[in-house]
Amino acid sequence: MNQDIPYRQCSIGVLDTTDDPNMRFDEQGRCHYYQEYIEAEKEYVKTGEEGEQLLQSLAKQIQSDGKGKPYDCIMGLSGGVDSTYVAYQAKKLGLRPLAVHLDNGWNSEPATQNIESIVSRLDIDLYTHVIEWNEFRDLQLSYLKASVIDIEVITDHAIFALLYKLAAKYGIKHILSGTNVVTECVLPPHWIYNKYDHINIKAIHKAYGKVPLKTYPFMDLKVKKWYQMIKKVESHSILNWVSYNKNEVKQIISDELGWRDYGGKHYESIFTRFYQGYILPKKFGVDKRKAHLTNLIYAGQMTKEEALQELKNPPLPQTMVREDLEFVTKKLGLSLQEFEEIMLKKPKRHQDFDMERSVYEMYPYLSPLKSIVNIAKKIV
């Protein structure tokens, strides 16, 4: 942390200036992440009667668009809380979802069992895409060697690409997403990178990769234009329209779907668990739990005192660190010494590599239209 920046913590949440040196505070000591959360909650979270009306209206539209087709919507299924509850809500609404799982080689045993139990009890079809391991391992190694912070981009990107491609294949107009405000709205922007940027992925792999990416599902410009603009495939964050208390939801899906808890947020993946619990804190000084817990505090699902107590524990127990370190390095084909050398490399920004540019950057002669488009959006 820059020594010139005085330490300060949000008066409500547990994020502080070590997490974001540019954090801003109001007169009551509330940081700007709190203000952003309140605005997002006000704009997007609609529960009770209003939320039910929105859900029913969307369900009718989805059912209408899906007439005569094997499925009327599509969704990702990881075995985690969010995607499991999306599947549960979809069936409650009478929808016919196709559940899609991306197997990148890192599924934990509870996650695999969860997926099997969910699709069985809800009686929904599951499409599992097993990503080519040599390609994906080479891509993960490229990101580790590049020393950029968001290694999970390559998994998320592939999932998005897969969902849009399958939606087009089956004539599906609607994707059901597990993203939501009350559990994952708060996150310092420099902790993550644009999940849709195929140019950045290719640039990092070109710099450090060895295996050609022949089958990896890219969400390139052609895919984005065709599926989003031409095919009009839309994504809906339906969890913003239901009461979404994390602990209560865990109980519901445990009782009704046989769901098993796997530990931390997104720990359904062994690599994600190791990445968030070891790589991020040790190499980048980032403890993602602080953002997740802050989000729950802002949503009224946890107290600051409870969050601070939880943060007294390490992100991962030491025994699990040792087990995961051995498993991950062996699976990636790295010696412990090679991995430690990667961990000691100075972090780089994703922006140090080629990035996807906006249409106005690629075609400067269109820039005068940008202000006209923005004005039109405001009027509408």
How does the major sheet shape up?
A: 5 strands, parallel
Number of helices: 17
**Strands side by side in the biggest sheet:** 3-2-1-4-5
- State the order of secondary-structure elements, H for helix, E for strand: HHEHEHEHHEHHHEHHHHHHHH
How many runs of DSSP E, i.e. beta strands?
A: 5
Q: Please, what is the average pLDDT? A: 91
Overall structural domain count? 1
Q: What is the CATH topology classification name?
A: Rossmann fold
The helicity comes to: 40-55%
Tell me the CATH superfamily. Answer: HUPs
User: What is the global morphology?
Assistant: globular
* Strand proportion: 5-15%
Q: Ranges with pLDDT <50 over ≥5 residues?
A: 359-380
CATH class: Alpha Beta
In terms of quaternary structure, the protein is: single chain
Tell me what you see in this structure:
The chain is an alpha/beta fold and 380 residues long. The chain has one domain (48-285, 317-352): 3-Layer(aba) Sandwich (Rossmann fold). It is built from 17 helices and five strands. The chain has helices at residues 32-44, 48-65, 81-92, 109-122, 133-146, 153-169, 181-184, 198-208, 221-230, 246-257, 270-284, 289-298, 304-311, 318-332, 336-344, 359-362, 367-379, and strands spanning 73-76, 97-103, 125-130, 174-177, 234-237. Strands 3-2-1-4-5 form a five-stranded parallel β-sheet, sandwiched between helices. Helix 4 (109-122) links the parallel strand 2 (97-103) and strand 3 (125-130). Helix 3 crosses helix 10 (246-257), helix 5 crosses helix 8 and helix 11 packs across helix 14 (318-332). The radius of gyration is 21 Å and the shape is globular. The N and C termini lie far apart (44 Å).
